[in-house]
Structure formats: structure tokens, C-alpha cells
Write a structure and sequence with these properties.
Radius of gyration: 20 Å
Mean pLDDT: 91
CATH topology of the largest domain: Ribosomal Protein S5, domain 2
Shape: globular
Number of domains: 2
Order of helices and strands: EEEEEHEHHHEEEHHHHEEHEE
Low-confidence stretches: 1-10, 333-341
Number of helices: 9
Helix content: 25-40%
Number of strands: 13
Structural class: alpha+beta
Amino acid sequence: MPLQLRRPSPRAPITIDAPARLHLGFLDPNASLGRAFGSLGLVIDAHGTRIEARLAEREQVGGAVSEAERERIALCLARLQAAYGPAPLAIDVVEAPRAHTGLGSGTQLALAVGTAFTRLVGQPATSAELAGLLGRGARSGIGILGFECGGLLLDGGPPGDLRQSMPPLLSRQPFPQQWRVLLVSDTSREGLHGAEERSALASLAPFPQRLAAHLCHLVLMQILPGAAEHNFAPFAQGLTEMQQTIGEYFASAQGGVFASPDVERVLHAVAAERTAGIGQTSWGPTGFAVLASAREADGALETARAVASALPHIECSVVAGRNSGAAIHGAEACAPHIDAA
């Protein structure tokens, strides 16, 4: 599903707004039927990545970016120039979430840089093409698909060689507008990434096929139908059960069902008072509670902040789902959308 975009003037500056995502769980980490992973995820309307870029005399990277992120941007630009030809860019990172917190910041930053580069040089590329070139989407396609279209997404896992293909989109449900998501993050921790993540995955026992079947059943017959019918209770129950099941599997690698015991404590307090779908996005440390309304979310936020009042490293906020993908601003630019054909 390529992005359908009009080309701006090659010299026009461009702004890319890429949304954050929550990774809600894998379906089958062990490929018991031949395909590994498969992912459920949700695009949210906060904690996104915004960059401004223009062609320049020399390469420049500035703004709200760490040294590690600056190096990642430089690597992206080197790969893009090798593929499309030399073109120095001046990039200003206007906004970006803290890295390695489970919000998909690495994929969004890479796709934002790739989209800006290819549009500025007059050779627009699809998200899948950019992801392959920039080394994103090896296990999950949620970040790439979320960049394209937003919503509640299900992908089918990468086929064959993980380096060759992006996971296909199997389902996209608009996330109900009235539902909200409480985010609870531990600023003293980072989720597993890089070599540590690869080592952790390699250390895990095979995922039982019966559990993979159970997760698929939950997603296809409870979570997605709940979202489609705006039926919150089964959605929340199914999501919590999915998260508990996959969290127990990853517990030996991350120190528990949740990477942060304090995040877990806060979310369990929220779930004890109201119906909520709770869990952890990716390797954490950010956890979430999906609530049925803004009013429910406000109550959950009050509970969360009360529990976390003596925990200065715990941050709590409420966000909504986002049913659209990345937005592109600039001369003659328009937001990306899915080709219905």
C-alpha cells in the first residue's frame, strides 16, 4: 500500500509529522506455523516525531535530538545518498519522544528522514521501500503501517528471511474516538534494544503453539471485534489477557511481566477500580491502560498519579488513538493516504 503523494518543488523545505505507536503484542514469536511474530498495535495522537528538512550546502542535524539519535540520522542519510545520490540535508528535529520507551521512535525517525530526503530530491519512495533500505520492520510492521495509515493494526509477521520483506497488513480498524489510553512510563529505565534485545530473544524457550493459537483467537474473535463494534468490555478483557500471556513469556528477559515494577503497580491500581485493558508496549518501560471514555481516563489518571505520588520517575498522561498516518507539510505537499485500489 504505497503512499500516494504529490511532488513538491525539489527545493521546498518540508516538515514531517510521524505518529507514535503502541506495540500491543506478538501473536507467535516461535513461528509454530512457519511465520514468526505477527503484531497487534495502535497509533496514538501524542509523543510523535516532527522534523523539518531542506536541501543545504552541507549536512546539518540539530534540534531535540540526542547524540545517539544524531548518529542514527547520519546513518540513514548515508544509506539514502548511496541509493538516490548525494544530496546534503539540513534537518531540525523539532520534537521526538525519549528513545527506547516502547513508542516506536526509531522507526518513526527513520521513516521521517527517509520521506523528507526522497521528496526533496524528487524521488518519492514507499514506506516499505524506505523501511527496507533503512533497516526497519524486521520483526514488526506496526510502526511502518502506522506511519502510513494509523488506527488499530494487525500484521502477519515477516515471511521467510527477516531482512527481505515487510510484514503485511492483515487488518486495520479505526480506533473508537471516545476511547482513551492512559500511558505510564518509568523515566529511570529504557526498554531492551540492539544487541541486548537480540540476546534476550535468543535466550527464550520456544513459544508453545497452544499459546500462539490462544493469542490469535483473542485477537481475531475478541479484541478486533470489540473495536469494530465499539464494545469495550470484551476488547479490554482480551487485551489484558493477551498482554499477560505474552508478558509471562518475556518475563525472564525483562525481569517480570512488566519491565518496570512501579509501572505495573500503578496499572494494577487503575485496573482494580475500573474496566481497563492494561499492558506494556514493546519492551517498555511504558505501560498503558485503555479506557472506555475521557471521563474514565480522567479518573484513571487521578488514581495513577496518587499511586505514583512518591515515585518521581513515573510519568502519567492520557492520549487518544490516531486514525491517520504521517502528515507532510510544505510547498505543494499533502498528507499521505492509502490508495483504496
